[in-house]
Design brief:
This protein is an alpha/beta fold and about 250 residues long. The protein has 9 helices and 8 strands. It has a single domain, classed as Divalent-metal-dependent TIM barrel enzymes (TIM Barrel). One of its GO terms (molecular function) is hydroxypyruvate isomerase activity.
Length: about 250
């Protein structure tokens, strides 16, 4: 079986933020990811990780979050100054939190100019923080209309242009299924570039086991590939208590 992590921005949200760490640990997780840890001083999140023996797999850039704001500027022509200052701020958090990955969000854009801008900005981030691993993640256009990075072919093209060992592909079964209609085939096609994976059912982004996807087949494919990374549960639980949706984990 793959090694599973819990996304604390979507899981255990029935609890206050700092209580989600112990809930995840008690459910058997040894690692978590937090999309936007920026509402609290980094040292408080660090303390919660340490107290519960949890590794931090991933955080997102940009800060603080995108409630009412843009989902990043990395591919937005004219947004480079904002992108660089966001990355600098994320790296100050990363110094304390030590996430394995920082997911760089592309933002709203389209076309050749946006592609060139995304490539340049990713190279800049990779060279500015050579010891930090970064990821990019295609998001489906139903959930994120007008988001630049909206398919896996495009993500692979971006990575080919970026040519940096510390920038890789973030796979998400929910988005892959929504974009391409077959998350398993997408895993098989792009697994060589995937450094981090997330799981959720489609079309409603609920827990594995529901919806149109065969998660047993996906986990088997992950196991049979060379993938050594985390598989993070990033879904919206259909019951009030997240714990009651973890049947897929116990199986
Ligand atoms: O899949 C998602 O929506 C997330 O992984 C993400 O980073 C967007 O905020
Ligand atoms: Mg995701």
């Amino acid at each position: 079986m793959p090694k599973f992590a819990a996304n604390l921005s979507l899981l255990f949200t029935e609890l206050p933020y700092l209580d989600r760490f112990s809930a995840a640990a008690q459910s058997g997780f040894t690692a978590v990811e937090i999309l936007f840890p920026y509402d609290l001083a980094a040292k408080e999140t660090r303390r919660a990780l340490l107290a519960n023996g949890l590794d931090l797999v991933l955080i997102n850039a940009p800060p603080p979050n995108y409630t009412g704001g843009e989902p990043g500027y990395a591919a937005v022509p004219g947004g480079t100054a904002r992108f660089q200052s966001d990355i600098r701020r994320v790296l100050r958090y990363a110094k304390v939190l030590m996430p394995q990955y920082i997911h760089v969000m592309a933002g709203y854009a389209s076309g050749e100019e946006a592609l060139a801008c995304f490539v340049e900005n990713l190279r800049w981030a990779a060279d500015f923080a050579p010891d930090q691993m970064f990821t990019i993640e295609p998001l489906n256009p139903v959930s994120q209309p007008h988001y630049f990075l909206n398919d896996y072919e495009l993500a692979a093209e971006v990575l080919d242009h970026v040519e940096r060992p510390n920038v890789g592909l973030q796979y998400d079964s929910f988005h892959a299924q929504m974009i391409h209609g077959d998350a398993l085939t997408i895993w098989d096609r792009f697994k060589a570039q995937i450094v981090h994976a997330q799981i959720g059912a489609a079309p409603d982004r609920s827990e594995p086991g529901r919806g149109e996807m065969d998660f047993a087949a996906l986990f088997k494919a992950m196991d049979q590939s060379d993938y050594q990374g985390w598989v993070s549960a990033e879904y919206t639980p259909t019951t009030r208590r997240t714990q009651d949706t973890l049947i897929w984990l116990r199986q």
